[in-house]
């Protein structure tokens, strides 16, 4: 038997993680917001990569069938490439954010309440997403 592709399991695991981390009982912890945002970012990477790969294969198939006008379908289409690079940048910096958060929580537990306020996570996450968009805005052109 051939093994199944890994993207459906990654997609399902990421959606399950988002659901769990944003549940009302879990959302009170600031680290769970970071992890939920990381799961959304990874899901975006999976979707954009899947669409880009399907577009490439579809263009090959249409070309073999003799259909013209396949130039619009490209694996490096600006939209998918831009979305993918923004999500990758966000994923990297969200991972760094989770690491810093855990470092402070584990190595400096008495300073953690001052350094990691409960309502500070959404601001950090929005800042990381805004930075990712601004950093990769030229990829759409």
TrEMBL record:
The keyword Hydrolase does not apply. One of its GO terms (molecular function) is G protein-coupled peptide receptor activity. It comes from Mesorhabditis spiculigera. It holds the Pfam family 7TM_GPCR_Srw. Keywords: Membrane, Transmembrane, Transmembrane helix. The chain crosses the membrane at residues 120-138. Residues 13-141 form the G-protein coupled receptors family 1 profile domain. Signal peptide: none annotated. The keyword Membrane applies. This is G-protein coupled receptors family 1 profile domain-containing protein. GO terms for cellular component: membrane. Its main location: membrane. InterPro entries: 7TM_GPCR_serpentine_rcpt_Srw, GPCR-Ligand_Int, GPCR_Rhodpsn_7TM. It is found in: Membrane.
